[in-house]
Amino acid sequence: MPDAADCRRSVYLILTAVALAVCVARVFGAENVYEPSRHTAPEGGYSAIPPDPPRHWPSARPEPTPMFSSNDKSRWATVRALVDDHTYAIGRRVYPDGRDPKRFSDEGIVTEPQFKSLDIVLRPLGESATGRQVREFYSSKPPLFPTLVAGEYWLLKRFLGWDMVRDRFRVIPTIILTVNVLPFFVYLVLLARLIEDSGRTDLGRLLAFTTAALGTYLITFSGTLNNHSPAAYCVLFAAYPLVRAIHEKRDMTPTGYLCCGFFAALSATFDLPASAFLAALGLPLLIAQPRKTLLFFAPAALVPVVALLACNYAALGQVLPAYSEFGGPWYNFEGSHWAKRGTPAGKGIDFNTEPTPVYAFHLLFGHHGWFSLTPVWLLALGGLVTLSFRSAADVQRLFQRPGNAGATGGTRGTGWTRELFAAMTLVVSSVVFVFYLSRTQSYNYGGFTSGPRWLFWLIPLWVLAIPPLADRLARWRVGRLVAVVLLAFSVFSVFYPAVNPWRHPWILNLLEFSGVLRY
Asked: Is the distance from CB of 391 to CB of 266 less than 8 angstroms?
């Protein structure tokens, strides 16, 4: 008879195969679909919820494309420009007479229907001797990630002759498999090991792994180019050597410190608020093991950070990202989507002006809620709170005995314990949530997105927090039922946007069609 661990490993394998099959199907089945409900009805037609702003059904068949939204099109435009045009500029605005700012014409990649995007900035480049002025368009997204993707596109074009426009249904799925699906496979393999070590019951372990495989928005966004999925994978890759060391009550190897620093910093270059995670890992390690942290963790962390700053400078002529210019002339140029703010045209979720408490509620428990869309996180929250209350003594020992965290318990070596890791997760999550509450100009929930995408990089940390409370619920039949129901609703939210991940969550759609709320 196989033991329980062998049975669980078989379940992990089956769930991994199913999750990867779902992701691959999303990648190869990706095609932007025109949905009638998002377009203005013909005169005399019926439309229960009119689109806002009005959208008109195309008079001719659009070119098919595996790109979905302004978000991913903006990144793909940069990838194409780097390889095909050898520049970060994705278009130009030409003023024949530099003295007349109202006369201009736009040209380049960003003007093509398949690459047209709202996520662009426009900066001045100067004036020629004849008075002709040219300003260039750039993606508003941080350039490091598109630069890495461009490397793969260059290889596909150089050795296979594939072109992103002509062979878009070859180039784009191949790259998406590389950046989304293959890392997801490694992510699940590593998570299975950590969950097996941290769980105490079959329910706790299997619930956590099923959530990781099928119950988070990493599945939803597996078929589209986005920064949140790679950021989440990098968070786990950074945490893995540390959590393994905690479970085995030992110090990390030099390779562990290198991986921890490199991937934590790389996650921050993909999703800038993940800088909080980088700092939260580095400070305790610096206190407990200053020599190894300075020799291995810090230099490895500098590599992606320097690369991001270098790409920013190469693209924009400054080390700060385009995001730093939000609200200024780089964003508010004539014809810009963001220039509509404060005007009658500034309607919809992108220009939401609701009070901060309302925004906070919807980001946690409302239509874009972390807990309402993925209610299995309520179990993770219980585990985080329970473990965090026990972490005070670990923090005290960490500061009292720097560099020598003791010879007993989980504090040996790295200075970390399971309880301290849970407290870190809770603190980092709270810091990120408060950060977005402070961005009063960006109360838009991430635009058209099926979930709270700005928080997706926290997913692996919360998956690891599921087993403690789930193990307790496993003692009672009602507890087991509650746990699987929470998971079922999470899976429903994840698979609801079957056609396009860049759409509203099911809760907001329900509120709109019920007439309760409309942005």
From this structure: no
Q: Provide Rg for the chain, Cα atoms.
A: 24
Contact assessment for residue 90 and residue 78, using Cβ atoms and an 8 Å cutoff: yes
Q: In sequence order, what E strands does 54-108 have?
A: 91-95, 105-107
Strand partners, 139: 120
Q: How far is CA 63 from the centre of its chain?
A: 28
User: Which pLDDT tens digit goes with each residue over 457-466?
Assistant: 999 999 999 9
DSSP string, 342-374: TSTT--SGGG----HHHHHHHHHTSTT-HHHHS
The DSSP code for 323 is G
Number of structural domains the chain divides into: 1
Token digits of residue 471: 């193990």
pTM for the complete prediction? 0.94
Q: Give the domain range for residue 377.
A: 4-28+165-337+349-513
* E-state strands within 99-251: 105-107, 120-127, 133-139
Residue closest to 111 by CA, chosen among 84, 132, 134, 93: 93
**CA distance linking residue 450 with residue 445, whole number of Å:** 10
Which of 294, 302, 297, 238 has its CA nearest to residue 267?
238
Q: Evaluate whether residue 50 is within a structural domain.
A: no
Question: Position 187: which residue type?
Answer: Y
Domain membership of residue 501 (yes or no) is yes
Q: What is the pLDDT of residue 452?
A: 95
DSSP 518: -
| Whole-number pLDDT of residue 393 | 66
Mean of pLDDT values over 291-313: 97
**pLDDT computed for residue 406 by the predictor:** 40
Strand boundaries in 226-287, DSSP class E: none
Confidence (pLDDT) at 168: 97
Instruction: Assess if residue 209 is contained within a domain.
Output: yes
Residue 110 within any structural domain of the chain:
no
Across the chain, what does the average pLDDT equal? 91
What pairs with residue 447 in β-bridges?
none
Per-residue pLDDT tens for 433-482? 999 998 766 678 988 999 999 999 999 999 999 999 999 999 999 999 99
User: How far apart are the C-alpha atoms of 289 and 242, rounded to whole Å?
Assistant: 13
Contacts of 136 (CB under 8 A, 6+ apart): 89, 91, 92, 93, 122, 123, 125
Token pair listed for 95:
């003023």
